[in-house]
Every structure is written in structure tokens, then in C-alpha cells.
Amino acid sequence: MDRSLYIAMSGAKQSLLAQSSNANNLANMQTTGFKSDLDWFRNRPVTGAGYPTRVYAMIEKPGTDFSTGALQTTGRDLDVAINGTGLMAVQGEDGKEAYTKAGDLRITPEGLLQTGTGLQVIGQNGPITVPPSEKLTIGSDGTITIIPLGSGNATTLQVLDRIKLVKPEMADVEKQGDGLLHPKNKLPLAASADASLTTGVLEGSNVQGFSAMTEMIELARNFELQTKVMKNVDDNSAASAKLMQMA
User: Fold this and answer.
1) Res 74: pLDDT
2) Which one of 10, 24, 49, 223 is at 20 to 30 Å from 59 when CA atoms are compared?
3) Where are the chain's structural domains?
4) Cα 233 to Cα 238: distance, rounded to the nearest angstrom
């Protein structure tokens, strides 16, 4: 029995999965520090009875595009861009340490230093808490200094903490469903003195809108082609059944 119907169906399914991944990239074109997902198709031979020309299609995620997004100068004291392949440590929603390039920081009314998505930034001794202060400065090495509120002396600087910065081999980390980067060996990364920040700057998403839109159109055409193949197989099956009835 020719399994072309099932093969076309698998191709249509994989095209839909690729569209979903590409749509996620498009939806995050304006997300600070977002790294786009990469997808590709590969062929998988059909096992069992069938023509040797028939192959299944399979979508795979070989990795993440870690290229640097466009840099935007904001002049805001709490906006930071992590230079090069450096990453900033945050506390994920599961409570474990994870890493991000999103440097749009903020201080909550409770004094917690968080990213724009509400993840707590990790310092030398865990999540960073900022007391009331007149001014806060973040150095290129992640050191946070403040002028305490009511100190009466604008030159009285106090070192509060230091943002944990890491600089791993990007092949050793992977992007997971929460959008954060995690070590493949599941162990927290060590802080690196080679990682640095630029303050008053944000790194934008590295999604290339034109390329992503072109890919979306191509995927839609692939899906349409697979559905046409399914229709042709169904028509051929009906014609074959009619011939058998005539016989």
C-alpha cells in the first residue's frame, strides 16, 4: 500500500509546527534581548511497505540564533546591555537560576530589582534588594552603587551588590520554553569577570522581520502544497475504487 497520504499529512503537520515557531519569533520582534529560534526540515525514510521514493518530513530545532540584536540608547540608569556573549543571571519562575540578555531593569515598590518581565535579578548572594536611595548607578562590571536616601551628602556612595554576569560557551546553554537560557548540564554557571555591561542602552530582539515574514509565506505555501497532495491522493483512491467496481 502506498503511504503517500500519511506522508503528505506528516508534512502538513510539520509545516504547522514550523509556522508556530516562526510566529513566536515574529511576536517577539520588539521584545528586549529576545533570541530567535532556528528551525529546519529533514527527511526521514519510511519503514515498512511503500515506495523507496517516499520520505517523511520532520521539523527540528537545531538551536537558537545568539547574534546580537540592535542596540538602542535610552539614557535610563536602569537600562543595561550585556556586551558580547555575556548573560545576566535571574531567578526563573521555577525558582532556579537562569540567564537572559534582557536588561530593561526596574525596582519594585518592595525594593526588588527585576527585569521588565518581573524576574528577579541575582547578585552575589541571591536576588538583589535595593533600599530607598537618592540615586542608583550600575557599573560596567555589574556593581550597583547607591546614594542612600537622606544621607545628606550627594558624594556618599555605598556599594550595594554586584549583578551576577556569566560568559559561557553558547554551545553549552539552551533556550527553553520560558524564553530563558539554561545550562545543558543543569548546573549554575560561575560568575565571569570577562562579562560586562553598557548602561543607558538596551539590546533589542535579533529577529529579522523581513526574513521571518518571507519564511512565514514559504511555510504557508508548503502547507498548501501538502494539502493538495492529500486531495490528489484521495481523488486517486476514489478513482481506483470506481475502476474496481466496474471490473
Assistant:
1) 94
2) 49
3) 4-65+207-246, 71-203
4) 9
Q: Which DSSP helix (H) or strand (E) runs through 143?
A: strand 143-148
CA distances from 228 to 6, 16, 55, 225, 235 (A): 13, 15, 17, 5, 10
Residue pointed to by grid coordinates 537618592: 134
pLDDT (0 to 100) of residue 9: 78
Of the candidates 67, 80, 207, 60, the residue with the CA atom closest to the CA atom of residue 140:
80
CA atoms of 20 and 219, how far apart (whole Å) = 10
Query: Which three cell numbers, joined as nine digits, stand for 80?
Result: 543595561
Q: In the numeric block, which cell numbers belong to residue 191?
A: 560568575
* pLDDT tens digits, one per residue of 194-215: 999 999 999 999 999 888 899 8
Pairing, β 106-107 against β 113-114: antiparallel
Model confidence pLDDT, tens digit, residues 12-62: 888 888 888 889 999 999 999 999 988 766 666 666 665 566 666 666 666
3 state SS of 167: coil
Contacts of 193 (CB under 8 A, 6+ apart): 141
Residue whose C-alpha cell reads 531593569 in the numeric block: 105
Q: What angle do CA 17, 20, 21 make, to 5 degrees?
A: 90
Selection from 151, 120, 118, 115 nearest residue 133 by Cα:
151
Q: What single DSSP character describes residue 225?
A: H
d(C-alpha 128, C-alpha 144), whole Å: 10
* Residue 181 grid cell: 537560557
**Nearest CA-CA partner of 77 in 101, 103, 99:** 103
